Amino acid sequence: MIGYARVSTGDQPPLPQSKALQSVGCVEIFEEHASGGNRARPVLAGAGRRNTDDRLPAIIAAIKGADPNITLHAICDRLESMRERTPRRRTRWQPSSAKMLLERAKRLGLL
């Protein structure tokens, strides 16, 4: 989950907001100092954007989250049945590719 903490002045610390966001499960928190009179929120504007390379790890994380005991071969079968292509745009998945993307999903905090 992604969180956003904003404080109005530079002397206000966003730490209490950030801690509250962490306590409810946010793994990525964006902090911004911006007054209420200024509507520009550049940090907020870019907060929800993920790299397109994160799409496959997110799919694999969802598969693993739905069935924590699923094997790498079963993940490959599921991806092929969904007609998802590998990172190299191939149609056949190898367990090593699924494992690499599963590890990336863990680093991204998706698992």
What does the average pLDDT come to? 83
Largest beta-sheet characterization: 2 strands, parallel
Instruction: List the uncertain runs.
Output: none
Question: Widest sheet: strand order?
Answer: 1-2
Q: Tell how many strands the DSSP assignment holds.
A: 2
By helix and strand content, what is the structural category? mainly alpha
Instruction: Give me the number of helical elements.
Output: 5
- Reading the helices and strands in chain order gives EHEHHHH
Distance between the termini: 11 Å
Share of residues in strands: 5-15%
Rg estimate, integer Å: 18 Å
Description of the molecule:
With 111 residues, the chain is mainly alpha-helical. The chain has two domains: 2-47, no CATH class; 52-107. 45% of the residues lie in helices and 11% in strands. The chain contains five helices and two strands. It has a two-stranded parallel sheet with strand order 1-2. The protein is elongated, with a radius of gyration of 18 Å. One of its GO terms (biological process) is DNA integration. Residues 1-45 form the Resolvase/invertase-type recombinase catalytic domain. The active site is at residue 8.
